[in-house]
Write a structure and sequence with these properties.
Helix content is about 50%, strand content about 20%. The protein is an alpha+beta fold and about 325 residues long.
Length: about 325
Amino acid sequence: MSAVINYSEVLLTTDVKRSFENNYLKMLFERHRDLPKSDIIEFIHKAQQTGANPSLNQIFLIERNTKVGFEWKKVGTVVFSYNFIQAIANQTGDYEGYTIKTELLDKFDINTFEAKKMLASTCVVKRKGREFPYTAYFDEYVQVKDGKATGTWASKPYMMIEKCALSGALRRAFPEALSGMYCEEEMESINADFDKHEDEKKLENDATVRIEKYDKLIEKSKPENVKDHEQAIDCIRVLLGELTKGETTAQKAKALSDICGVGTFSALSLKTPDELNALSDKIGSIIMEKSQRELTASKKKTDEKPSFFLGDK
């Protein structure tokens, strides 16, 4: 049995810049129990090093799923309030304010190799008489789902992109103080990874449920589990119904003829139990192949969603 670690004694020293409440560490580790402990410890260290106070919403630990090789893993990412980032710059004594302008700018489209209009915010931070410009393009930061902006990005796009531009310009002007400090608005697009993962899990779960349901139907239709022809025919009727869901009557009739070789369900009564069993297996295989194709197509569509580069320009 592994020893119990007292994180308060390990992590909190006498020279920390901020104090934690008595039960803060315990609550933090319980709240993020699914994250690697190293990510939580990194969050605590960054709070100590920068003086950011979680209770004042100056620093956050956000959970997200990321793909490592062929597996999805949950990780923690540390982000800061853009107001706190600005406060750190101001503490240097060199910060002389900023100007910001948001407008439509021409941006090179890597897909069409042509320029396209894109909402962008350009912020210029002044430090000791020098200017440090930074341009944030909307499509590189916006949080999207199903091709549409979500959350505050949908309701207040100008405010969000301006926060990203200011944060980027501040990092460029004060690299020694702000290197690696990203604001929450800049990092929201990483949730696209999480949404993609959740979509894939839902698709996989839906496909698994369908396949399990079809397997049960096929099992019921086997001769040893069927009391009479009517029960076997009912199973085939349900399987065909699932296969042709949403199709017209003519399409359903064609499927019955093509797969079962009969024009009506009543004609199935002339087939032997072995023949009915073979038909159930055949229809079940077709359904599962169809489900797998749909799952593969949906995953491919999800994989083709644009990703967003969050590095400084």
